[in-house]
Amino acid sequence: MELLRTLLAFAVVLGVLVFIHEMGHYLAARWRGIHSDAFAIGFGKPVLKWTDRRGTEWRLGWIPLGGYVKLHGQETPADASAEERARWRPGETFHEKSVLSRAIVVAAGPVANFLLAMVLFAGLFATLGQPVGGTSVGAVVADSPAARVGLRAGDEIVALDGQRVTRFDQVQRHVQPRAGQPVEIRVARDGVELTVRATPDARVLPNGQTNGVLGIQGGAVRFERLGLPQAVVAGVVQTGDITWQTLVGVGEMLLGQRSAKELGGPIRIAEISGEAASLGIAPLVNLMALLSVSLGLLNLFPIPLLDGGHLVFYAAEAIRGRPLPPKAQEYGFRAGFAILVTLFLFASWNDIAHGTFGRWVAGLIG
């Protein structure tokens, strides 16, 4: 039962995110007058497929690890065979559209993921409520960094190193990669704000990763249900906040200020999907929103083969007045493929080497 729940949750979460991403490409292509030859969710031999009245073949593959939209005439005439060119519909091919139209179609996938996250967060805030008072200190551990600088239960953490925080998980994410590094903490106490500097202690986790800890526990969190307009605004703000935090985290990894061990692969996604599903629909929806932001942002990174890489090529084409030379694009795509394979293998190795895979298997058979 555990295995079935995990696999189903993983398929649902990833399937929805990929479907929305590809639907963004598909709808933008229709808007710009580009025909789509195929719309596929999953890879491998299709378990279900049909062709609609526009001639688009819809496919559902049995391996739920991605998807794609095959745009009509996506290849340039030089790259297509005579047989393929003979099947092209004049005026409906991707390659003959303007740079702006092609960029809109490519950018629409990530944009759809950001919009999905906004909708999911807004739905949660309108139905279950938005967390309120999420940065209050519930308890302070004796002789901890927080206790040594005078933090008390009931203090409300307002900002860390000048960055405002509104949820306790933001506090944790800021502190964890900063073991041994002073952190400026601004708190509100009895209507007055004061600032202290604490240096998180280092705690070694079972997987070998070192986290910074202040020695505080979060206080009780209450949920305040919002009206629909307020929920929509809060959903947009939440999506922007998570996007910024993700970018900051990536930057810290690149600068060596944060451990790359935090990167997780498909095994980790499957694990947390199963855990979220076991807690109920709300945690699963929240996870889906978080992953939707990550998927949208990842696809905007300027790596060839990703949407962001294509947008870089189109920007160069707009500036030059003509596409980049075929050789330059070929080498770019090869480099992008190497980067993506390396990232995938590294993230998967993290899952295996740092215990995620073992814990996941043990939980399935235990």
Structural account:
The protein has three domains: 1-9 and 97-129 and 226-366, no CATH class; 33-96, no CATH class; 131-224, Roll (Pdz3 Domain). Helix 1 (2-31) packs across helix 8 (281-300), helix 3 packs antiparallel against helix 9 (307-320) and helix 6 (228-254) packs across helix 8. By secondary structure, it is α+β, with helices and mostly antiparallel strands. It has helices spanning 2-31, 82-87, 99-127, 145-148, 168-175, 228-254, 266-279, 281-300, 307-320, 326-353, 356-365, and strands at residues 36-51, 57-71, 130-132, 137-140, 156-160, 163-164, 183-189, 192-198, 201-204, 210-213, 216-218, 222-224. The relative contact order is 0.13. The mean pLDDT is 83. It is built from eleven helices and twelve strands. It has a four-stranded antiparallel sheet. Strands 1-2 form a two-stranded antiparallel sheet. Strands 3-12 form a two-stranded antiparallel sheet. The protein is elongated, with a radius of gyration of 24 Å.
Q: Percent of residues in beta strands?
A: 15-25%
Class derived from helix and strand content: alpha+beta
* Domain count: 3
User: How many DSSP H or I helices?
Assistant: 11
Query: Which outline best applies?
Result: elongated
Give the integer mean of the pLDDT values.
83
Integer-rounded radius of gyration: 24 Å
Distance between the termini: 11 Å
Q: Work out the oligomeric state of the chains in this entry.
A: single chain
Number of strands: 12
Poorly predicted regions are none
Order of helices and strands: HEEHHEEHEEHEEEEEEHHHHHH
Task: Give me some keywords for this one.
366 residues, alpha+beta, two-stranded antiparallel ribbon, 11 helices, 12 strands, 20% strand
